[in-house]
Design a protein that fits this description.
This protein is α/β, with parallel strands linked by helices. 47% of the residues lie in helices and 7% in strands. The protein folds into four domains: 180 residues, Rossmann fold, CATH 3.40.50; 71 residues, Helicase, Ruva Protein, domain 3 (Orthogonal Bundle); 90 residues, Zinc Finger, Delta Prime, domain 3; 83 residues, no CATH class. It contains 22 helices and eight strands. Helix 10 packs across helix 11, helix 11 crosses helix 12 and helix 15 packs antiparallel against helix 18. The chain is elongated and about 100 Å long. The chain starts with a strand and ends with a helix.
Length: 473
């Protein structure tokens, strides 16, 4: 038997991806409670009714075998809103002989955790087990997350946390090491369509008693409006059906009217923010102009700060185009200035123009690789002293110490080539920049080759005295 308890205000309406859910005391909106929203009524009652996540919890998976053996480990369910994290947690509880407790990180604190653990401890003494579901666990601070550790270690509770953010960044390492991360994706069109068919045909918890059907294109419109979110799909379906008589055909237009204008999901400080920025840079890095334009437009469409987009493009200009075409950096800086001067929406043109310039330019990461290797070199070799001939000789004491004594002023020599070594002796001959042949990068490669050849075989040629005097600042 599975019982349900919830702290005041605890959530748990995370997205449905199946039908029904285990009923229990104090659990309104389960089977038969027709006043509850369709999305709540259609929660899965078991793991077999969960759709769209066969790779994570389907038959034959490691997690499913543990559940079937009644050895459920602590879990972190990581996925976007509406993919079914709460529903899976409830189905897991229904698949084990455990009492289901739930907390919301938005409204609960350490006091609530202690109360839940006290009940779990009493239950354990009587031979019972507790599955504690924590919604939005990433919103708990370090101290609150630490409060779970001893109880997870002792087996007082089996912890199932739900998070929309990457657990590696938002869940404490000690807690992360004690739980298995289950990565869930937004639901694809096929499972969403199956869920829509299930909801319209289920006479007990769905809309089956109303004998409604879908017209051409209605299901496709539903899945498109959902954006991978099962709860959104069921809410739109319920809204469309509510304005129609029994036996009606739900059309594409009915769905469009019920869906209204789509709201793109985005969190400026969360995973979506970094995922879109990463997609933008990787598309430009690969020279895909159309994809670069799309991801740039996506960032702007979701309300991202255009200055953030401009800063990312400046990074791309230096990191990915680099010395292959250094002239793009001023163009991107000009786009950044346009953002500050114009603001949205007009500055979008400048940003998109910069994307086209960057993605269609020859690309080189030689400077980025050199920067990585230089950091490693400095960390390895430490603070090597500057050679005396490169030190300033602006004071009498410095000159008496021999600083600058053997420095050869480059402009006194033809081509600015004085033949001197400018690295610490320990690093003589080392090379970090290794340019290829893309665009201006080839010119840099030819220069480096000529410079090295002069070092090996050339003889510095001093200009005559008159030329040297003119070259002096």
């Amino acid at each position: 038997m599975t019982l349900f308890h919830a702290a005041d205000g605890a959530g748990g309406t995370d997205g449905m991806d199946g039908t029904g859910g285990p009923a229990g005391p104090g659990d309104p909106g389960r089977a038969g409670a027709t006043s509850a929203p369709l999305a709540e009524r259609m929660r899965p009652r078991s793991l077999d009714e969960v759709v769209g996540h066969d790779a994570a919890i389907g038959e034959g998976t490691a997690l499913r075998r543990l559940v079937d053996a009644d050895r459920l480990p602590s879990l972190l369910l990581w996925g976007p809103p509406g993919c079914g994290k709460t529903s899976i947690a409830m189905a897991l509880a229904g698949s084990t002989d455990a009492t289901f407790e739930t907390l919301s990180a938005v409204l609960s604190g350490v006091k609530d955790v202690r109360e839940v653990v006290a009940r779990a401890r009493d239950r354990l003494r009587e031979g019972g087990r507790t599955l504690l579901f924590v919604d939005e666990i990433h919103r708990f601070n370090k101290a609150q997350q630490d409060a779970f550790l001893p109880h997870v270690e002792r087996g007082t509770v089996v912890l199932v946390g739900a998070t929309t953010e990457n657990p590696s960044f938002h869940v404490n390492a000690p807690l992360l090491s004690r739980a298995r991360v289950v990565a869930l994706s937004a639901l694809a069109d096929e499972p969403l369509a199956a869920l829509a068919a299930r909801a319209i045909g289920d006479p007990e918890r769905g809309l089956g008693q109303r004998a409604m059907t879908f017209g051409d294109g209605a299901v496709a419109a539903l899945t498109a409006s959902a954006g991978g979110d099962a709860r959104v799909l069921l809410n739109v379906l319920e809204a469309a059906a509510s304005s129609l008589p029994d036996g009606a055909v739900i059309t594409r237009d009915d769905v469009a009217e019920a869906a209204g204008k789509a709201i793109l999901r985005h969190d400026r400080g969360g995973d979506a923010h970094y995922a879109l920025a990463s997609a933008l840079q990787k598309s430009i890095r690969a020279g895909d102009v159309q994809a670069g334009l799309y991801w740039c437009a996506r960032l702007l469409a979701v309300g991202e700060d255009p200055l953030f987009v401009a800063r990312r493009l400046v990074v791309i200009a230096s990191e990915d185009v680099g010395i292959a075409r250094p002239s793009v950096l001023p163009i991107v800086i000009a786009a950044r200035d346009a953002v500050q001067f114009l603001g949205m929406p007009e500055c979008a043109y400048a940003l998109l123009e910069a994307v086209v310039v960057l993605a269609s330019a020859p690309r080189s990461n030689a400077v980025a690789v050199a920067w990585k290797e230089l950091r490693a070199e400095i960390e390895s070799s430490g603070a090597l002293p500057v050679p005396d001939h490169l030190r300033p000789a602006s004071t009498r004491l410095a000159r008496e110490m021999g600083r600058g004594a053997v420095y050869l002023y480059a402009h006194d020599f033809e081509g600015g080539m004085n033949g001197q070594e400018h690295l610490p002796p320990e690093l003589t001959g080392r090379q970090w920049l290794r340019p290829g042949s893309a665009g201006f990068e080839a010119e840099v490669a030819r220069y480096l080759g000529a410079f090295d050849e002069f070092r090996r075989t050339g003889v510095p040629r001093r200009r005559d005295e008159a030329e040297r005097r003119r070259a002096r600042p």
